[in-house]
């Protein structure tokens, strides 16, 4: 009579502090620990009432591909963790391939500042505005109490109010910027298939620009399953900056986002019909500071591209009159040759 390994599997999963689960070859979850249930099941309707005694049972039979990209998960090599979005959270995924399926360990990437940093900034703001406010209040009270004050003396009090108001405004702006920077999540790297990167890029540009933005279908790409490691928050700001400058410079009425393979790199092209961008102009754009992500930021598009190990250049118009700017990013090509 065969011996069931289920109790042993459940005991091993329960001993793992991170979210852990086991799937069959079809991606159906066969066992999971409570941490995995809290991570994956939290946003589903009725999660609190479902299997409250053994929450890990709420995942049994579900497809792991409802939470993680199937192609990204299947193509990821064992022993090389990758990062992916699960709902609104970024998680590091460790995969081990087994004869009967997959074993996964998921660890949430922590990116928010400690509460004491925010408290320190709030305390500093309180102390820094106390002086200017006291000076303004005293000057106003003096002017109100002595309405017949000599003109020169009244002008001095008016100057005090003006100078202290300027100082207060500058202090508030500095503190607001510092607070926003401290509470902005770090730009953590995640792994995306080229197809998903193209779709996400098109969506971000469509939201930011006043022109039509189209994403080329996966069938038109020769690298839809190439995997690219990106810091999306920083890359998104860079792409929006680049697309905004391009649209204004060439008066483009529409943009198309295309992903293709260039050797062992993924080529992200922003294409339009019309005149190309001059290389010297692209160089100037690349060195401009990007719009901050909540706080002060002097990072440039060139800095973002170089941090990704990529390159940026302008492409001349082809025979059909389509020009482009191209961003090259290192990519991992699937071993099965789907992107060859």
Question: How would you sum up this structure, described in words?
Answer:
This protein has 340 residues and is α+β, with helices and mostly antiparallel strands. 40% of the residues lie in helices and 24% in strands. It is built from 9 helices and 12 strands. The strands form 2 sheets. Strands 6, 7, 8, 9, 10, 11 and 12 form a 7-stranded mixed β-sheet that branches. The chain is flat, with a radius of gyration of 28 Å. Residues 1-5, 43-53 and 111-115 have low confidence and may be disordered.
Strand tally is: 12
- The whole-number mean of residue pLDDT values reads 80
What's the SSE pattern? HEEHHEEEHHEHEEHEEHHEE
Structural class: alpha+beta
Number of helices: 9
Amount of helix: 40-55%
- Specify Rg, calculated over alpha carbons: 28 Å
Task: Give the CA-based shape.
Answer: flat
Record the SSE blueprint.
Elements: H1 6-14, E1 19-24, E2 29-32, H2 34-41, H3 70-75, E3 82-86, E4 89-98, E5 101-108, H4 115-145, H5 151-183, E6 189-193, H6 194-208, E7 212-215, E8 227-231, H7 232-250, E9 254-262, E10 265-273, H8 279-286, H9 301-307, E11 311-315, E12 322-332
Parallel strand pairs: 7-9
Antiparallel strand pairs: 1-2, 1-5, 3-4, 4-5, 6-8, 8-12, 9-10, 10-12, 11-12
Helix pairs in contact: 4-5, 6-7
């Amino acid at each position: 009579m065969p011996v069931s390994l289920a109790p042993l599997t459940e005991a091993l999963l329960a001993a793992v502090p991170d979210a852990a689960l086991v799937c069959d070859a079809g991606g159906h979850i066969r066992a999971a620990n409570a941490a995995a249930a809290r991570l994956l099941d939290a946003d589903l309707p009725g999660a609190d009432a479902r299997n409250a005694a053994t929450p890990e049972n709420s995942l049994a039979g579900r497809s792991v591909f409802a939470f993680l990209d199937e192609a990204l998960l299947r193509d990821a090599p064992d022993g090389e963790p990758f990062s992916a979005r699960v709902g609104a959270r970024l998680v590091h995924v460790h995969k081990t391939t087994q004869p009967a399926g997959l074993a996964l360990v998921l660890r949430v990437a922590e990116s928010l500042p400690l509460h004491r940093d925010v408290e320190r900034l709030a305390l500093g703001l309180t102390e820094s505005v106390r002086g200017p406010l006291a000076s303004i209040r005293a000057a106003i009270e003096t002017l109100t109490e002595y309405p017949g004050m000599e003109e020169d003396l009244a002008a001095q009090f008016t100057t005090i109010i003006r100078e202290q108001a300027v100082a207060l405004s500058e202090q508030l702006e500095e503190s607001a910027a510092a607070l926003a920077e401290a509470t902005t999540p770090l730009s953590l790297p995640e792994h995306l298939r080229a197809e998903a990167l193209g779709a996400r890029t098109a969506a971000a540009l469509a939201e930011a620009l006043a022109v039509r933005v189209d994403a080329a279908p996966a069938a038109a790409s020769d690298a839809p399953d190439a995997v690219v490691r990106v810091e999306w928050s920083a890359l998104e700001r860079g792409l929006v900056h680049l697309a905004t400058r391009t649209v204004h410079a060439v008066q483009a009425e529409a943009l198309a986002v295309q992903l293709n393979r260039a050797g062992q790199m993924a080529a992200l092209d922003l294409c339009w019909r019309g005149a190309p961008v001059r290389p010297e102009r692209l160089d100037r754009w690349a060195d401009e500071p990007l719009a901050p992500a909540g706080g002060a930021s002097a990072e440039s598009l060139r800095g973002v591209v170089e941090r990704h190990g990529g390159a940026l250049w302008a492409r001349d118009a082809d025979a059909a009159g389509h020009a482009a700017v191209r961003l090259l990013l290192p990519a991992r090509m699937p071993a099965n040759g789907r992107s060859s």
